[in-house]
């Protein structure tokens, strides 16, 4: 597949910039709320809602988060990175990439995560199909 979606924080967003800690924090929050939903339904919903393990990887090309499937044959992986990160300027972009090994189920889950993150951060979202959704409080 090798497609990418972008989440961009704007001056009207809840966040001014994006860090890997922010991303890990919102992924943990997503897992918490899906776990609570599962408890209310008496169902193992959190495993279905987030069938991944989050692995932080640092390479010579940079840092990224790998969402690796937890042995579910329908899912494989999703990559999350912060492009053009430097110490002197904070990043306002988050990129969610589907590597060539990703499945259609990964794409559906990535779309769901993108919308969730953009909505929580009140950010701008450019989807995999290049359509843009605005969750920021534009004036």
Structural notes for this entry:
With 139 residues, the chain is an alpha+beta fold. The N and C termini lie far apart (36 Å). It is 32% helix and 28% strand.
Care to count the β-strands?
Answer: 7
Biggest sheet character:
7 strands, antiparallel
Radius of gyration: 15 Å
Decide which structural class fits the backbone: alpha+beta
Strand order of the largest sheet: 2-3-4-5-1-6-7
Q: Count of DSSP helices?
A: 3
What is the end-to-end distance? 36 Å
Strand content: 25-35%
Helix/strand order, N-terminal first: EHHEEEEHEE
Shape annotation: globular
Mean pLDDT: 87
Secondary structure topology:
Elements (H helix, E strand, L loop, with lengths): L2 E6 L11 H22 L3 H5 L2 E8 L2 E8 L7 E5 L11 E6 L5 H18 L2 E3 L5 E3 L5
Short description:
This protein is an alpha+beta fold and 139 residues long. The chain has helices at residues 20-41, 45-49, 104-121; strands at 3-8, 52-59, 62-69, 77-81, 93-98, 124-126, 132-134.
